[in-house]
Design a protein that fits this description.
The complex is a heterodimer. Helix content of chain A is 0%, strand content 61%. Chain A is built from no helices and eleven strands. Chain A is globular. Chain B contains no helices and eleven strands. Classes of the chains: A mainly beta, B mainly beta.
Chain lengths: 110, 115
């Protein structure tokens, strides 16, 4: 079992829909990252959080430490949101390296 | 201000050859991490360097090595290339030495193809 599991693996939605991507992890963590990867490979950091909720524009990230679960929400989705969304955790022991999920491929249809 | 830069962008090598990939962090960032991303999978941690010292190493063979220079740029070296080394190699920089508990700024990556 991977330390970081994401669901769904693929998601296709119509423009304007509310999107939720889930991330579950099995280890104690000190931080969780949400990243966006566009075709071609470039990765952009969206959020880093260790508790509660963060919001940036149409993006919202939440984390429940007790349940070892995080969600990324996109409101009023747009075709430019189409990308792979990756969850990564930093375990709270060891060398503080990032452990990544396999990503969720999101496609927003106009 | 320039972001993280990596060179080259694409590279084709044959099995058994050696490759050197380069990364320049954001100005002021002293931590550089390297990741390997095989097609269809999430990135895997290879190395982290801070102030020219290795701070972390992932589960990769000794064919993989890296170093960080006084200007905080970094090189990733891979010897005796195998077909399975074909991947996107990503570099990320951050200000904090922790590596993982600071916002990571990623470069565009180097796509390595081993034939």
């Amino acid at each position: 079992k991977n330390e970081v599991e994401q669901s769904p693996q693929n998601l296709t939605a119509q423009e304007g829909e509310f999107i939720t991507i889930n991330c579950s992890y099995s280890v104690g963590i000190s931080a969780l990252h949400w990243l966006q990867q566009h075709p071609g490979g470039g990765i952009v950091s969206l959020f880093m959080l260790s508790s509660g909720k963060k919001k940036h524009g149409r993006l919202i990230a939440t984390i429940n430490i007790q349940e070892k679960h995080s969600s990324l929400h996109i409101t009023a989705s747009h075709p430019r949101d189409s990308a792979v969304y990756i969850c990564a955790v930093v375990s709270n022991f060891g060398n503080e390296k990032l452990t990544f999920g396999t990503g969720t491929r999101l496609t927003i249809i106009p | 201000d320039a972001g993280v830069t990596q060179s080259p962008t694409h590279l084709i090598k044959t099995r058994g050859q050696h490759v050197t990939l380069r990364c320049s962090p954001i100005s002021g960032h002293k931590s550089v991490s390297w990741y390997q991303q095989v097609l269809g999978q999430g990135p895997q941690f290879i190395f982290q360097y801070y102030e020219k010292e290795e701070r972390g190493r992932g589960n990769f063979p000794d064919r993989f090595s890296a170093r960080q220079f006084p200007n905080y740029s970094s090189e990733l070296n891979v010897n005796a290339l195998l077909l399975g080394d074909s991947a996107l190699y990503l570099c990320a920089s951050s200000f904090d030495p922790s590596g993982g508990t600071d916002t990571q700024y990623f470069g565009p990556g180097t796509r390595l193809t081993v034939l």
